[in-house]
């Protein structure tokens, strides 16, 4: 990593938004080859904090430090990535991989992004497999990791629904889905699709409703 | 359940949900735990916890499920399966200028995400019923929730403190 990385990052953040990052006066944008692509996404894959943690690393590397992407385009791609199902960061890895190195680039960026999590996940699951048969584990799990896991799911649900928990049509729809699953025991797949269809009616752009 | 079936299930559920990870929990619970019985609730929760304490994307916990059911091949195949929907980004980029026709997509997505929030809480209730069996687990759950939601502590710290609390209670013979 170049020694100037931190200094550039610090002064890059202070620039006025109307500055032209891609044609900055003192430094040309750095081209991104396959190796740099792998490095950037591997570093992003090591970030804690889920999607936003990864996004912060990408912003730092692609926009601030290397000036390979300007801020406006970075935000536009992020907005597009959010409407792609599954992970937004997966979508961004595909977009940047393709942009800098074509289809092979998408494989490079995706592999680099998932590698750290994949290795650690497999290792920790293997530990579970090894301890699984110990007599004390089934007694210990229900009072340690499992209640904590349930709390993590609640927190994730709250975070996903930040805008839902206030009097709104969103709250009604979420409550309906909750009731459909918890009380009526309807299929979650069915409820999700019904939620999407209801969304096209409830949340369509204003000008379309006129 | 064959590896191909598992990948298909993971691919479809992942492609149906937004928000990277938690949205899939109710779907996987209904399918793999309740309907097919190939995974226990404990295994699903353990997998989800791993995702919270490892870096990177939260949806990598399907690799843990893949590993539990089909070993290393399962982990790699399920990981690949959840990357595929990302390729929808390419046609989106190409057609970005002509998105007028699919203006309803964000509204559909929003409805789906909102419904998924309701489903996550429904899954929490049903998982909670089978998991929080004694008062110690209820106390540890409440403590973990307070640490993660109110105090915004790092998940690793939350997990460590929860494990200490529960282990302490177990050693004392309360659990």
Describe the structure.
The complex is a heterodimer of chains A (210) and B (175). Chain A is an all-alpha fold. In chain A, 70% of the residues lie in helices and 0% in strands. The longest helix of chain A has 44 residues, at 88-131. Chain A is flat and about 60 Å long. Residues 1-25 of chain A have low confidence and may be disordered. The two termini of chain B are 35 Å apart. Classes of the chains: A mainly alpha (210), B mainly alpha (175). Chains A and B meet through helix 3, helix 4, helix 5, helix 6 and helix 7 of A and helix 1, helix 2, helix 3, helix 4 and helix 5 of B.
Topology overview:
The complex is a heterodimer of chains A (210) and B (175).
Chain A: H1 5-13, H2 34-45, H3 50-65, H4 71-82, H5 88-131, H6 137-140, H7 145-160, H8 169-182, H9 188-202, H10 206-209
Helix pairs in contact in A: 2-3, 2-5, 4-5, 8-9
Chain B: H1 3-16, H2 24-35, H3 41-53, H4 61-83, H5 89-94, H6 104-131, H7 135-150, H8 155-171
Shape assignment of chain A: flat
Cα Rg of chain A: 22 Å
- Mean pLDDT across the residues of chain A is 81
Largest sheet of chain A: none
Helix proportion of chain A: 55-70%
> With helices defined by DSSP (H or I, 4 residues minimum), what is the helix count of chain B?
8
Sequence stretches where pLDDT stays below 50 over 5 or more residues of chain A: 1-25
Question: Approximately what portion of the residues of chain B adopt beta-strand conformation?
Answer: under 5%
Provide a compact summary of the structure:
The complex is a heterodimer of chains A (210) and B (175). Chain A has 210 residues and is mainly alpha-helical.
